[in-house]
Design a protein that fits this description.
This protein is mostly helical. It has a domain at about 340-390. About 80% of the residues lie in helices and about 0% in strands. The protein is built from 22 helices and no strands. Helix 16 (about 260-275) packs parallel to helix 18 (about 295-310) and helix 20 (about 330-350) runs antiparallel to helix 21. Mean pLDDT is about 90; it is low at about 1-15.
C-alpha cells in the first residue's frame, strides 16, 4: 500500500506529467478559441472547461468560458465568473464590460451606467459607448444618450446600432429632421453588421447558393438569443431572399425583444404583407407609424394595406402623409392618385358629385399624365353639366 501511494505521489509531482497536462490544457484552449470564432459557443465552453480541468490557473480559459456562458444566456453563471475575475483583479475591464451588459439585460440600468462609465477611458472595446448610450436612453435621459451616441459614432461610424438609438433619442427630444437623417443612416449601414457575424455570413453564402434549407438550419439556432441586433439581421437576410416565413419567425422574436422599435414593427408588417396576412400586417404597420409618424415606408405600407382592404379614408390619410414626406416619390404619387380615383367612384354612387370632382381634380394634379383619371373627371363634369341643364 505504501509503495502504491509513493507511486501516485511520484506521478502527480512528476514535472513531465505536469508539462503534459499544461500542453493538453493549451490544446483545449486553442480549440475553444477556434470554436468561439465560429460562434459555436456551447462546444467552445466544453473545451474551456477541459482546459481548466487540466490547468485551473489558465486565466485565458477562465475568461473565455465566462464569455461563452454569457453568449449561451447562462447569465447567473456568467455573472459569477465575471465577479470572480474582478475579485482576482484579472481582466477587470472585460469583466466590467460584461457585467454592464448583464445589468442592461436584467434592466438594472443605473448599475449598467456605472459599469460603462468606468470604461470610458479604457479604450479596449469598440461599443461600450453604445451600451452606455443605450442605458441612458432606457432611463429616459435622452440628451445624455444623444451626447454619448454621437461620441460612439465618432469612434466607429459604421455601427448602425448607434445611429439607430441616436435617431430614437432625437425623436424623443423632438428633433425630427435629425432623427430621420439618423434612421436613414441606420438602414444604409445594416449590411456591415451582417458581415460582422461569421455564422450569419455563412447563412448568406448558403442563400446565395440557393441552399435555403441549409441556411435556415444554420441560422435558426441563432434566434435563441437576447441580442435583438442579431435577430434583426437574420430577419433582414431571409426577407431579402424572399424566405418570408422564416423571416417572420425572426421578426416576431425581434418585436418581443424591442417592442418600441418602429423599424422592427415595420419589417414584421412588411413580412406579414408578403405572406398575405393582412390583419397582422395592418396591426404592426399602424404601430410603426404611431411610433414614428414621419416614417415614409411605414406610411406607404399602411396606405397600401388600407387600399387593399378597401378602407378608402384610411388609405388616403396614410398615402397623403407619405406623399407629403416625399413629394417627388413616384410610387407614392401614383398610388395616392389611384386611391383617390377609386374613392371618387364611391362618392359618385352616394351622389356626392361635387366632392367627387374635388377628389378627381386632386388625382389629376398628382397624375396629369393619366388619361384614365382625366377621362373620369371629364365624364363626371359632363354628367353634372347635363344634370344642371335639365334642372
Amino acid at each position: 500500500m505504501t509503495s502504491l501511494i509513493l507511486l501516485l505521489i511520484t506521478i502527480l509531482v512528476d514535472p513531465s506529467n505536469i508539462a503534459q497536462q499544461s500542453v493538453s490544457a493549451r490544446a483545449h484552449l486553442g480549440e475553444g478559441n477556434r470554436l468561439m470564432e465560429m460562434e459555436r459557443f456551447k462546444e467552445a465552453a466544453q473545451e474551456f472547461e477541459q482546459a481548466l480541468y487540466r490547468d485551473s490557473k489558465l486565466v485565458e480559459a477562465q475568461q473565455q468560458l465566462a464569455v461563452c456562458q454569457f453568449e449561451l444566456r447562462s447569465y447567473d453563471v456568467a455573472r459569477t465568473l465575471f465577479q470572480q475575475m474582478l475579485q482576482a483583479k484579472e481582466h477587470r475591464a472585460l469583466a466590467t464590460y460584461y457585467l454592464g451588459r448583464l445589468d442592461l439585460l436584467q434592466q438594472d440600468y443605473q448599475s449598467a451606467i456605472q459599469q460603462f462609465r468606468s470604461l470610458r477611458n479604457a479604450g479596449i472595446f469598440r461599443d461600450e459607448l453604445y451600451y452606455l448610450g443605450l442605458a441612458y436612453f432606457k432611463t429616459g435621459r435622452f440628451s445624455e444618450a444623444a451626447d454619448v451616441l454621437r461620441q460612439a459614432i465618432a469612434d466607429n461610424f459604421r455601427d448602425y446600432r448607434c445611429h439607430q438609438f441616436l435617431a430614437r433619442s432625437y425623436q424623443k427630444l423632438g428633433e425630427t429632421r435629425k432623427a430621420e437623417e439618423e434612421f436613414a443612416e441606420t438602414q444604409r449601414l445594416h449590411d456591415y453588421y451582417l458581415k460582422g457575424s461569421v455564422a450569419i455570413s455563412e447563412c448568406r453564402s448558403l442563400l446565395l447558393e440557393g441552399q435555403s434549407e441549409k441556411a435556415w438550419d444554420k441560422c435558426q439556432p441563432l434566434l435563441e438569443t437576447d441580442d435583438v441586433d442579431k435577430v434583426v439581421s437574420i430577419g433582414i437576410l431571409f426577407g431579402k431572399s424572399g424566405e418570408y416565413r422564416r423571416a417572420l419567425e425572426a421578426w416576431e422574436k425581434a418585436v418581443s425583444l424591442d417592442p418600441d422599435s418602429s423599424e422592427v414593427h415595420y419589417n414584421l408588417a412588411l413580412t406579414s404583407y408578403h405572406l398575405k396576412d393582412m390583419s397582422k400586417a395592418r396591426y404592426h404597420a399602424e404601430i410603426a407609424v404611431g411610433l414614428r409618424p414621419n416614417f415614409f415606408e411605414a406610411n406607404m405600407l399602411s396606405g397600401t394595406i388600407f387600399y387593399m382592404l378597401a378602407e378608402d379614408d384610411r388609405a388616403i390619410q396614410s398615402l397623403t402623409r407619405a406623399h407629403e414626406l416625399r413629394p417627388d416619390d413616384d410610387g407614392a404619387r401614383k398610388l395616392l392618385a389611384q386611391q383617390l380615383s377609386l374613392y371618387s367612384d364611391s362618392l359618385i354612387r352616394k351622389n356626392e358629385l361635387d366632392r367627387a370632382v374635388q377628389v378627381l381634380r386632386r388625382a389629376t394634379e398628382l397624375r396629369p399624365d393619366s388619361e384614365e383619371i382625366a377621362g373620369r373627371l371629364a365624364q363626371l363634369l359632363d354628367r353634372m353639366s347635363s344634370k344642371n341643364r335639365k334642372d
